[in-house]
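Agenda item 2: guanosine-5'-triphosphate complex prediction
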Amino acid sequence: MKVGIVGLPNVGKSSLFNLLTAGSARVDLYPFTTIEQNIGVVLVPDERLDRIAQILKPEKASPAHIEFVDIAGLVRGASAGEGLGNKFLGHIREADLVLHLLRAFSAGDIPHVLDTVDPDRDAAVVEAELAIADLAIVDKRLEHIRKEPKTPEQHLLLEALEKLHSALTRGERPAQSPEESRATRELGLIMPKPVIYAVNCSDTEPADPSRFAATAARTSLLFSAALESGMSDFTDPDRVEMRRSLNLAPEGPAGIVTRCFDALHLVRFYTVKGTESRAWAAPAGTTALEAAFMIHTDIGNGFIRAEVVNYRDLVACGDFHACRDQGHIKVEGKSYVVQDGDVLHVKFR
Ligand SMILES: Nc1nc2c(ncn2[C@@H]2O[C@H](COP(=O)(O)OP(=O)(O)OP(=O)(O)O)[C@@H](O)[C@H]2O)c(=O)[nH]1
Ligand SMILES: [Mg+2]
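Presented output:
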């Protein structure tokens, strides 16, 4: 899973990226500090995997991971070449999800490209630029497809593109059916992607969501990058206490990971093979066969059956043998829909 971070310059994108990935992206008080993209990986904390590892004692327990991409800041007029332009958006066209970061902290020494602190306005500016960038792609494709012969697939694509065109010109986030979304996936459009908003707030004054009502109305995570970087040697309860006192999300920037899972409707399943226990994140509705292909192409191609035990039963029984004796291991075929918390063992030839 890949998450692309967007926002104006100097809102704290690279600071957040570093907090999440323990990375070392360059952070500076000048706009356009980030020019080349930064890519980092966050391991998803997973209590269930910890319990499975306690029971099975693998040499290695590998949690699911999310890839974050930090790009340059987008400014008003980027589509017409302002700032660094919008070419760098290409780095996030493959992302599954957009993390839109907004700035609610005011700091005199750190310039705001639009001079005043106003997250709702900033969100509108960035989304207008994203819409214009997408529109350029949609219009180019439309021009081609209108000249092409019409197969049923092309009809579907044409309709999907026309819908996108009208939503984007109205500045709206396009709503797509699963078929339309599949038909237009290769275009890498950003506006139809699911989005989560995070607001970088003051580290000294309590956050006041009424000052960014439109943003706050769309489930947003409030955090403060400056606060977090000053709390590295605090205990967890002290961190939570500090965040609460500033009206921020008690779980801190790590809450973004949970929100990514929710926004993408992901389930987590587990595999145990030899010395490794591993967690996998997959879209809700993934079948046993699709899961097998995620694990390895050979396992998918040679699929015979899946033996499935839910981690709750595994934990309750204490080990696989006891699960088997008590009838908790189900034998499932290719079309079984994987459930959150399933431990899968795929038999293949
Ligand atoms: N006071 C305060 N300063 C912050 C906060 N978060 C980031 N900064 C500062 O703001 C400046 C910009 O932060 P970056 O993380 O580089 O911002 P960016 O969005 O990546 O900026 P560009 O790469 O230029 O687009 C740096 O000087 C940071 O130290 C915050 O929560 N509070
Ligand atoms: Mg940056």
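Discussion summary: The first helix runs from residue 13 to 21.
Owner for follow-up: CH.
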